[in-house]
Amino acid sequence: MSGNPLNSYIRKRAQSMGWSMVVMGGSFFLYYLGLFGNVQGPLAPGNLGESLAAMGVEKSHMLMFFLSFFIIALTWNHFFNLISFMIGSRRSCLKKNQGHSCGAVTQKIKAGNKQKNIRYRCVKGHTCSDARFNPVKKGVVSHTIWVVAMVFCAIILYCS
Ligand SMILES: [Zn+2]
Asked: How far is the CA of 127 from the centre of ligand 1 (A)?
């Protein structure tokens, strides 16, 4: 019974719990490598700084790297959404069908260059002058990546 709402609820909970375990596991891994400074490992801020200095990597270079990584990780979906919005992709049909929106994938069809002539046609054959835009939202993994990048920035700024 895959359509059972209780089953799908349990599956969703299990999935999010799975991701929590992955994040927790990753944190423990970094902890034992000494990233947070309380365990003497290869990633302990002091050791990390020394080995990087030996390699000729400057603190400011590291900071620039993680800062740009952080900014990209934080903003990529907004740029993607902006481009999708401009080229008319990621839109779903708004045609009412027995009280429900059709919701099918639409394609932008050109009818001249003017903005008011833009039409969207869905796979079921409806043609509308407007269609619902579906922006990309960050998932747990995407959020984790920018948080990790931010933590690295903070470590470089305050611990080395
Ligand atoms: Zn439709």
From this structure: 7
